[in-house]
From TrEMBL:
<feature type="domain" description="Helicase ATP-binding">
    <location>
        <begin position="191"/>
        <end position="442"/>
    </location>
</feature>
<keyword id="KW-0347">Helicase</keyword>
<dbReference type="GO" id="GO:0043139">
    <property type="term" value="F:5'-3' DNA helicase activity"/>
</dbReference>
<comment type="similarity">
    <text>Belongs to the helicase family. DinG subfamily.</text>
</comment>
<keyword id="KW-0547">Nucleotide-binding</keyword>
<dbReference type="InterPro" id="IPR027417">
    <property type="entry name" value="P-loop_NTPase"/>
</dbReference>
<keyword id="KW-0378">Hydrolase</keyword>
<dbReference type="InterPro" id="IPR011604">
    <property type="entry name" value="PDDEXK-like_dom_sf"/>
</dbReference>
<dbReference type="InterPro" id="IPR014013">
    <property type="entry name" value="Helic_SF1/SF2_ATP-bd_DinG/Rad3"/>
</dbReference>
<keyword id="KW-0238">DNA-binding</keyword>
<dbReference type="InterPro" id="IPR006555">
    <property type="entry name" value="ATP-dep_Helicase_C"/>
</dbReference>
<keyword id="KW-0067">ATP-binding</keyword>
<dbReference type="InterPro" id="IPR014001">
    <property type="entry name" value="Helicase_ATP-bd"/>
</dbReference>
<dbReference type="Pfam" id="PF13307">
    <property type="entry name" value="Helicase_C_2"/>
</dbReference>
<keyword id="KW-0408">Iron</keyword>
<dbReference type="GO" id="GO:0016818">
    <property type="term" value="F:hydrolase activity, acting on acid anhydrides, in phosphorus-containing anhydrides"/>
</dbReference>
<dbReference type="InterPro" id="IPR045028">
    <property type="entry name" value="DinG/Rad3-like"/>
</dbReference>
Length: 801
C-alpha cells in the first residue's frame, strides 16, 4: 500500500484489503520457500489447461478501479487468476492451493477459507464496475498439492454487501493513517526530550551530520569519505533517526562485518536508555540463530518451524518482544526458543515492525537471501538505507551476480538417479542429462592460462539454458510432491541444491549485457562473471527514500559513485578531513624496494630489514600489513632475530581470535609485532587506540591477485572507459592501503609512524590516490629511502614538544 498525502490518494492491491486470518493449518511438510513455488506452479498449470480447453478463459486478467471515500481516492488494483467473458455475464475464478490429506480435502468447506472468499468477492466487485454492471459470478478453485485433486466452489456474490465491506475496510485504513499521524506528533514531542549527545564534538562530525540531515530531508543519496575518528556511525545515525522518528520513516543499517554492528549498538544505547521509542532489530545469520539440533529448516526435522506461521500469530511473542526497544539476537533467540519457534524466522518477522534494522549487506542486496518480507512489497520508499564501509559493496555486489555450475555436481546427481526406475527420478534424470548435454556442447574459444588453470570463453545459448532449467524445475516439483507423499525427507538434498544453483544461473544468464561474461574453467566449472554490479545495486538503492554510503575512505569518489550504481543526479559526495592533528603522525614512503610479484622473492630480506629497523627505533606495538598470507609467511622467515613477540594472522582466524590478539596488544606486557593481511579482520573496522599501535607498516599496494576473473574486469573497464587497470586493481588495492593506515591514529592523542614500502607508492598512479588530508603541510608525506633518519627525527620532535 502506498499513500500520497499531497493529493490524498491511497494505492492498494486487493490483498491489502484482506483481513489476516489466524487459522490452524495442516502441517505442510514442504520446506517453506518451496511451498510458494509449488502453489504458483499448480496455479499456472490450471490456468494453462483452462486456456487450452476454453477459448473464453483469460488468465491474469488485470483490473483496477478508483473510489472516493471521506475526501480520499482509493486506487485499487489486482490480477484475477481467470475470467470467462460470456455474452451476458462474466465468471471469475481464483485458483488457490492447499496441502491436505485426500479425505480432508474431500470434506473441506469453503467457509474455512474466508480470506480466499473475500479476495474473489472484491475482484467480482471491481470487475463488475469495469464492465458497467454486467452480471458476475465468482468461483474458488482449490487444488490439493498432495494428490492434484481439484474442487470448484461457487461463492455468493451480493454487490451491496461487498460494497459495505469494501467501505468498512477504507474506514479502517483511514483510521490507521490517522493513528499514525497522531503517533508522529507524539514522537515529535518525544524527540525534543532526547539528547543526541556526541562523546567528542568534532567539526568533521558536525559537518557530516548536517550533510546527512540535508540528504534525508531532500530524499537524496550521500557518499561520505569519513577518515578514522570522525565518529561516522553517530554522524549518520543521529540525523537519520531524528528525521525518521517524527516522519514515520524507518532505517536499515547494513554492514559487511558483524563487528561494525557492535558500534551501532554502542551508539544506539544512550538514546534507547533515555527512552527513545525506536525499535531496533539486529539480524544474525540463520546458522547462528538456529535452535534446532541440526541446521535443517524443514518441518519434518525441526519442531521450531513446524506450523510456524500459526503458532507465531497465536503466541504473544510479538507483543512480548515489542516491549523491548533493542532486540539483540540473544534476546530474540531466548524468547523464540522458549516458545519452540525458530529464532531466525522470529527475528525476520520482528524486523517488519522495527524502526531500525541492523544486519549484513545480504539482507538488502543478495538476490538469493534479501529480506523478502520487505522487498517483495516493491515499495520500500519509507526506508532510509545506511551502508557502512561501503567500499566493500563493490566486491560483494559482483559476488552476488557471478553464479557457477559445477560439472561434478550434475554428474554426481546423474550417478545417484541412473539406476532408479521410478518415473519421478527418470524425469529428473532427463533434466540433468539435458544440462550435461549443454555443458558438453559448449563452444570453447581461446585457451587462456592463469596460475596453472585453463580457461575458455563461451557463448551461452540462453534459450536452451532456460529450457533445460524449466525441464529440471518441472521434474523437481514432481519430485518434491513425490517426497511428501512418501514422507521422504532428505537433509542437504543435492537435487534441491542444484535447483537453486540453476535458477540463479539462468536468472543471470538472461542479463545479456556486456557486464556479464560467461566462461568455462577447465576444472569443470561454467561461470558467469559479473564485471559491473552497478546496474543491479543502483536499482535496489533507487527504491529507498535516501541512501547514505560511508567509509573511512571512498577514494576516488567518482569510482565508487560509478561501481555502486548511484544515480548521479540524486547523489552528493562529502570528503572529510581527518579530525586529528597531522603532526601526531609521520607518513614515509620507502621507494627503494620493488614489491612486484616477480621481484618479491629477492626482496623479502630487505623488507624484513626495514620492519626491524623501524621497530628498533621505538619500543611498542607495530602492525604490518601485507597483500597476501604468502607474503606474511615469507617475510616472517627473515624476522627471526627480532626481539619482539610476533603474531601472524592465519586464514582460519575468526573474530574470537581477533579479540584475543587485541587483548594481547592492549595488555602491553611486551611489545607485539602483528603481521596481518590487508582487507582482513585486523585491517578494517577495528580500533587500536592509544598504545595498542605506535606504527603501521604497509608492504605493497594490496592489488587483488591476478586471476582470470580479474582480467575480465580489466578488459571490461578498458573497453567501457579505458580504466581497466584502475577499476580492476589499483583503486580497490589502494583503498585497502588507506583503510589499513587508518588503524594507527584513533584519537587526538594517538601518535605514530606509517611506512609505505614499495616503489609503486611513489608513482603517480598510486601516489595521487593518497587522501588529501595526508598532504596538508609540506613534508607530511616523505618519500625517502633514508627512512631511519626520518623516523628518528619524528620521534625526537615529539619527545621535545
Ligand atoms: S531452528 Fe530455524 S534455523 Fe534452525 S533448523 Fe529450525 S528453521 Fe532452520
Amino acid at each position: 500500500m502506498a499513500v500520497r498525502i499531497e493529493d490524498q490518494t491511497i494505492y492498494l492491491g486487493v490483498r491489502d484489503l484482506l483481513q489476516p486470518v489466524y487459522r490452524q493449518q495442516m502441517l505442510s511438510s514442504f520446506p517453506l520457500p518451496q511451498r510458494g513455488m509449488l502453489g504458483r506452479e499448480a496455479q499456472t498449470r490450471v490456468q494453462k489447461q483452462k486456456e487450452r480447453r476454453f477459448g473464453l478463459f483469460h488468465s491474469e486478467y488485470a483490473v483496477s478501479r478508483s473510489y472516493a471515500y471521506e475526501g480520499y481516492t482509493f486506487h485499487i488494483y489486482g490480477r484475477i487468476d481467470g475470467v470467462y467473458n460470456l455474452k451476458n455475464r462474466v465468471e471469475i475464478e481464483e485458483i488457490k492451493s492447499v496441502i491436505l490429506q485426500a479425505v480432508e480435502f474431500r470434506r473441506l468447506k469453503i467457509e474455512q477459507y474466508p480470506e480466499f472468499i473475500e479476495q474473489v468477492l472484491f475482484y467480482a466487485y471491481l470487475l463488475q464496475d469495469e464492465l458497467q454492471g454486467k452480471e458476475v459470478a465468482a468461483y474458488l478453485v482449490l487444488v490439493n498439492l498432495i494428490n492434484d485433486a481439484r474442487r470448484t466452489f461457487p461463492v455468493d456474490y451480493n454487490r451491496l454487501q461487498v460494497e459495505r465491506l469494501l467501505f468498512r475496510r477504507f474506514a479502517h485504513i483511514l483510521a490507521n493513517l490517522q493513528r499514525e499521524q497522531q503517533e508522529r506528533l507524539r514522537r515529535e514531542d518525544e524527540l525534543k526530550k532526547i539528547r543526541f549527545t556526541l562523546p567528542e564534538k568534532r567539526p568533521q562530525q558536525k559537518k557530516m551530520m548536517r550533510a546527512v540531515a540535508s540528504s534525508v530531508e531532500q530524499k537524496r543519496h550521500l557518499l561520505v569519505s569519513a577518515p578514522t575518528g570522525t565518529g561516522k556511525t553517530a554522524a549518520a545515525l543521529f540525523p537519520a533517526i531524528q528525521y525518521a522518528y517524527s516522519r514515520g520513516k524507518k532505517l536499515f543499517f547494513v554492514t559487511s562485518k558483524t563487528t561494525q554492528q557492535a558500534i551501532v549498538q554502542e551508539t544506539m544505547y544512550p538514546l534507547l536508555e533515555q527512552g527513545l521509542d525506536f525499535h531496533t532489530v539486529y539480524l544474525r545469520a540463520a546458522e547462528k540463530m538456529c535452535a534446532n539440533k541440526v541446521f535443517f529448516c524443514h518441518e519434518a526435522f525441526c519442531p521450531y518451524i513446524a506450523d510456524y506461521r500459526d503458532r507465531f500469530l497465536q503466541s504473544n511473542l510479538q507483543a512480548e518482544l515489542e516491549a523491548h526497544t533493542a532486540l539483540l539476537p540473544d534476546r530474540i533467540y531466548d524468547a523464540a526458543a522458549a516458545h519452540t519457534l525458530c529464532p531466525f524466522e522470529v527475528s525476520l518477522d520482528m524486523s517488519l515492525s522495527a524502526d531500525l534494522i541492523i544486519g549484513d549487506y545480504n539482507y538488502v542486496f543478495d538476490p538469493g537471501v534479501y529480506l523478502r518480507r520487505l522487498f517483495a512489497r516493491k515499495d520500500y520508499s519509507d526506508w532510509i538505507l545506511i551502508i557502512d564501509e561501503a567500499h566493500n559493496l563493490y566486491d560483494r555486489g559482483m559476488g552476488y551476480l557471478s553464479p557457477e555450475i559445477r560439472r561434478e555436481q550434475v554428474q554426481n546427481l546423474i550417478g545417484l538417479y541412473e539406476d532408479k526406475e521410478t518415473k519421478v527420478y527418470q524425469k529428473l534424470l532427463q533434466g540433468l542429462k539435458e544440462i550435461m548435454r549443454l555443458l558438453d556442447s559448449l563452444e570453447l574459444e581461446g585457451d587462456i592460462h592463469f596460475a596453472g588453470q585453463q580457461y575458455f570463453k563461451v557463448e551461452l545459448n540462453t534459450r536452451q539454458w532456460e529450457e533445460a532449467f524449466l525441464l529440471y524445475e518441472a521434474a523437481f516439483v514432481r519430485y518434491l510432491i513425490h517426497n511428501v507423499k512418501k514422507r521422504i525427507v532428505l537433509m542437504e538434498d543435492p537435487a534441491e541444491k542444484l535447483y537453486y544453483v540453476l535458477r540463479r544461473f539462468v536468472q543471470i544468464a538472461r542479463l545479456k549485457e556486456r557486464a556479464f561474461v560467461p566462461f568455462y574453467d577447465a576444472a569443470g566449472i561454467l561461470k558467469i562473471q559479473c564485471c559491473d554490479p552497478s546496474d543491479y545495486l543502483g536499482r535496489r538503492m533507487e527504491g529507498f527514500h535516501s541512501v547514505i554510503a560511508m567509509s573511512a575512505t571512498l577514494d576516488p569518489m567518482p569510482f565508487y559513485l560509478d561501481v555502486l550504481g548511484f544515480n548521479a543526479e540524486r547523489s552528493d559526495v562529502l570528503q572529510l578531513d581527518s579530525p586529528f592533528p597531522a603532526e601526531n603522525r609521520k607518513i614515509i614512503i620507502v621507494p627503494g624496494v620493488s614489491t612486484r610479484y616477480k621481484d618479491r622473492m629477492q626482496n623479502y630480506p630487505k623488507i624484513a630489514e626495514i620492519i626491524k629497523n623501524t621497530v628498533r627505533q621505538r619500543k611498542g606495538n607495530y602492525l604490518v600489513f601485507f597483500p597476501s598470507y604468502d607474503f606474511v609467511q615469507n617475510v616472517n622467515l627473515f624476522l627471526g632475530d627480532l626481539n619482539q613477540k610476533k603474531i601472524l594472522q592465519k586464514p582460519s582466524m575468526k573474530e574470537e581470535d581477533r579479540e584475543q590478539v587485541l587483548l594481547e596488544l592492549k595488555r602491553g606486557n611486551e611489545p607485539v609485532l602483528l603481521l596481518a593481511v590487508m582487507g582482513g579482520i585486523f585491517s578494517e573496522g577495528i580500533d587500536y587506540s592509544g598504545d595498542m599501535a605506535i606504527g603501521v607498516i604497509v608492504v605493497s599496494p594490496a592489488l587483488p591477485k591476478i586471476s582470470y576473473e580479474r582480467e575480465l574486469l580489466r578488459e571490461y573497464y578498458d573497453e567501457k572507459q579505458d580504466q581497466g587497470m584502475e577499476y580492476a586493481y589499483i583503486y580497490p588495492g589502494m583503498n585497502k592501503v588507506i583503510q589499513a593506515v587508518g588503524r594507527l591514529i584513533r584519537s587526538a592523542t594517538d601518535k605514530g609512524v606509517v611506512l609505505l614500502i614499495g616503489e609503486r607508492f611513489a608513482r603517480d598512479e598510486y601516489n595521487l590516490l593518497l587522501p588529501d588530508y595526508w598532504l596538508h603541510g609540506s613534508g607530511d608525506v616523505e618519500i625517502t629511502n633514508e627512512y631511519k633518519e626520518a623516523i628518528r627525527s619524528f620521534w625526537n620532535r615529539l619527545d621535545n614538544t
